[in-house]
């Protein structure tokens, strides 16, 4: 293969593979270290037995589900209606979807905490995080849904359903959602990875999500940190595998860090 | 003097032979078409000539010099691709100037050539348009000007017209020929369209499955195809399998007049090729001498001509064609019984392989 | 009446979305921008001026240098890798393996990534220890994971894959005919890249650089977990103000945040102008 690839290409590929694999392999080896010359699964055992791990994991999963739900209610219907009835609003939506790029997460936290000091039922519970998470996922979800909407002929489908006597609710439930399911699933899984890995908001607003748990545990126990690192990598991998298998749109898989 | 010569060129891809020993030579200023069905190896041969591929065996010569191992960018050959080969970021002028520029030709000369060549290909008014602002035909004109701008020893065209629609294709075809004559550049023109090859070339080289079957003038290719493949591939006509029998080919009980059959030992398996323009039809009740009974199956109107498909009596599944001047085809219709006849000298007879 | 209601429902959804954006995105953004120039006694430039103090000027300088470096490393590394994988000689399985790996790595978020690098190349990292055993003391040689260089290396782990994903379609758009035509006309490989390949890719490369820059500029978790405040970066300074780690007024946090918004807006503006010019031949 090297004969047809050329030296630059071979070097790039080899360096790429080494750079990508080394941290994973070394981190795995490190996670097995039990002090001295002993190796084993002690770190993993201690993690599995830690109720905080499960609590934080569940919290992050719950927040991810809530974020997706918020997206389904707020974003999906309005995007469909804009696509159908008010294409003039599309530039505005594009602009909004790009905003989170201009306002970094930490700047948004600063703004939110300056602006909202109550009510307690809103800012006092972890559910508050769903608001910034929605914006964090917005650019990616928007792109995925936009691709999905452009791929199907929403207008014809809707008109056909209306002519058959369906109301908006039925059109939505029976026609549009099923046809958009691939795009929605892609958006959902992207939201999942983003929320599972999100640290900025939770850390500043003092909620113990999975990423915060990893940070807290990791700063005191090094091998557990390595094990958690790998666990998190596997979760990301599973979600991304889902995106790749459903969406096959490779242009929008980037996340925020 | 042959300026370009390919000798015993062989090439395989992944163990599969694509070119199986190709020989061909071009004279100075000649336009030769490489004609053959898709996948027969035309592009591969052209790419070997251009230097993009190395042959597994054989030599490429230019003015007697062995250039087989010379890199593509050191050969002086201008190539025009099928489509989309213009650099999208450069306007027409800069596309044409590209070759002279990378060869270090002085700026003033670059501009002079670009101006002159764009004029030559009829795009004097489109000098500063970008490729996406030009039609397919215009893009190919720019590509031709660009290839000529390096003042190539040989011009290589790989199906340059096949992505264009019929009208533009015919027009650009004759313009390519005019420009080629004006510049006197030795040219290889690849096509799978026989009409294109026959109309544009000094000589036509017919290829099939990696072999060169015949290299001859368009008229010779049409009139005297060297083998059954060429005869079938070029033009229309009947192909009838039988056995040589004196000055005739015998198919079952029917003897088809063919003087050329006398050249084959009696009884050998042969094929008879009969062009439509050689077949005469006569609806009269009494047969003219040597005529065969036949039935009209189908009529195709071509304007001045009408092409008649026939079934010959006594030969199962036989198909033959006759071209009739349209104003004399009035009474013809499918099912009509006619007499078919031809000059015994007209059919070509080739040994069956 | 029900018909009218049915017609209004879609607009209610759109209105709800816009209201949500206004309340939780635009309003906080405006708050930050206003707070940055509004003291307890009316308008003031005091907080903006405070950004000129050594600590905060350093934070901005560090953030800009780090983001530019991480974007450059990503663009070059990811671009070369994508290019190599698209060469006809590259095995197909490797191409798809790398693509799906990249989808994961580009989303491999901050804290776990930081820990993976600490386990590997930290002062007590396994690779650091192994190399030391072989006689190569990388920290002795001046390397540190907890420096701007170390951060750039860590960022490369998500920047390179992100670049690979976003540049692959553009690279696929480079037609083999252009390369062949250039070579046929006498151009060397470099002349081809200089006069055709790079100019054609330029708008995509520019867009990729801006995206990668923004990605690195807003990164908070990775530097937080990796450097624990040893290196001043704008996001970590903001969080210090917000969480009361430093005794500063919230307006300073707002000024820092406003600074980030201004930087990103400026980057996008420059990008927009440059992309218009670079893509002149497309229109
Ligand atoms: N780079 C290549 N690798 C493998 N097979 C090839 C390559 N180039 C051409 N071929 C094969 O060689 C044969 C001849 O191709 P080509 O020269 O392009 O034919 P033509 O131009 O006459 O249509 C085809 O079967 C094609 O699939
Ligand atoms: Mg071809």
Describe the structure.
Chain A has 257 residues and is mainly alpha-helical. Chain A has a single domain (50-256), classed as MetI-like fold. Helices cover 78% and strands 0% of the residues of chain A. Chain B contains eight helices and 20 strands. In chain B, helix 3 packs across helix 4. Chain B starts with a strand and ends with a strand. The relative contact order of chain B is 0.12. Chain C is an all-alpha fold and 283 residues long. Chain C has a single domain (53-282), classed as MetI-like fold, CATH 1.10.3720. Helices cover 76% and strands 1% of the residues of chain C. The radius of gyration of chain C is 24 Å and the shape is globular. The chains are: A mainly alpha (257), B alpha+beta (353), C mainly alpha (283). The complex binds adenosine-5'-diphosphate (ADP) and magnesium ion.
Percent strand of chain B: 25-35%
What would you call the structural class of chain C?
Answer: mainly alpha
Q: Point out poorly predicted stretches of chain C.
A: none
What does the oligomeric state look like here? heterotrimer
* Overall shape of chain C: globular
Q: In which range does the helix fraction of chain C lie?
A: over 70%
Q: Averaged pLDDT of chain C, please?
A: 88
**Can you give the helix content of chain B as a percent range?**
10-25%
Count of helical regions of chain C: 12
Total of domains of chain C:
1
